[in-house]
Amino acid sequence: MRTNYKKSNKKVQTSAAAMLHLLILFSASDKTVAQNSAGVVGIDHVGINVPDLNKAVTFFSDVLGFTPVTQLGPIPLDAEWKKLNHINPDTGAVTIKMINAGNGASIEVFEYADNKGSKIHPKTDDIGASHIAFYVNDINAAVEYLKSKGVKIIGEPFTMPSGDTAGESWVYFETPWGSKMELVSYPSGKGYEKANPKTVLWSPKNKTIKKTVDDFDSKKNTLIVENHLKIWNERDEVKRKVLLNQVYAADVEMVDRHFIAEGFEDISKFIVELQTKNPDFRFSAKSIETNHNIVRLYWQFGSKAKPSVVSGMDLFVIENNKVQKLYVFVDQKE
Fold first, then answer.
1. What is the DSSP string of 61-109?
2. Can you give the pTM of this predicted structure?
3. pLDDT tens across 66-105, in order?
4. What is the pLDDT of residues 100-136, one digit of tens each?
5. Which residue ranges form the domains of the chain, and what is each CATH number?
6. E strand or H helix that includes residue 243
7. Where is the signal peptide (predicted)?
8. Whose CA is closest to 10, among 80, 73, 66?
C-alpha cells in the first residue's frame, strides 16, 4: 500500500478494481498470462498496523535483527481517503516505517495517531487474520533465543511427518503488541520437492549470499578446509557437531556422484556410516589449492599402513566464512 491521497487516484483505484474482477473470471491457465500481462514480479512487502511504532521497530531491530530503512509521516488523511480505505473518520495521521527483514519481502509498519479502529486482534479463524513467517536455519536455537528475550512462544516446534510439507518444522510466537507470527525451517527441503515438481515455492533458504572480503582470504579458506578434514575424522558426535557448525553453513549441500546430502544431519549420517565401515581409516590432505572463494582439496583415505587406499578431490564453495557447497570426486580404481 502506498499513501498517495490525491483525488486523481480514484481512476487508478477504479481501474485496479476492474482488473481484479477480470482476474477472478480467468481460468487457471489464463491466470499465468494475466500475471505476466500485469507485470507482477513478486512480493515487495507486507504491511501491518501496530499500536506503538517505536516499540514495534525496537522489537524488529533489537530482537529479530531487522533494519529500519525509510519513514513517512506523520501524514494527515483526508476524509475521501479514509472513506475509500475504510478508515474511521476520526482516526488521525499515519506514520509508516519500512523495515528490511533480511532476504525476502520487507515489512511496512503503520501507526495511526488517535486510532479509532478496533484494538482487538483478529482471531485465528477470522476473515482477514494473517501472520508473517520467518525462516530460520535452526528452529530450536531460534526458539531458545526468543524465550531469552521474553517472547511468548505458542506451543512447541512441530515437524511435519508426511505430505507436501514433510520435513518442515514450525512454531508460532507472539509479538509484544499481540500479533501472531511464525518461525519455520526446512533445511533438507519439503516433501513435495522430492518429486522434482515443475514449479517450487520460493524460499529464503535458497538465498544468494553476498560475498565478503574474507571469502577471498586464502589463509582462512585453507584453515576451513583443514577443519573440514577434522570433521570427517572426528568420531565423537558432540565434537563433530561443534565443528559442523563452525565449518559448514546450516543448509550446506554435498554433491557426490551417487547422492546429494543436504544439511548437517545428512552429512553427519554419511560420515558415521563411513567410519563404521572403515574403523581404522582416516582422511589426510595431499594438497590444498585456493582460487578466491573456491578451494580444491586433494585427499587420501586409508589406514596408517596404507594411507591411500582411496583418493580423490573435493571442491568447496566458501561464502561468509563457511562451506556452502561441497563437490566430491573419488578417483576411479584402475
1. IIIT--EEEEEEEEE---HHHHHHTT--TT---EEEEEEE-SSS-EEEE
2. 0.56
3. 999 999 989 999 999 999 999 999 999 999 999 998 888 9
4. 988 889 999 999 999 999 989 999 998 989 999 999 9
5. 129-197 (3.10.180.10), 213-330 (3.10.450.50)
6. helix 237-247
7. 1-30
8. 80
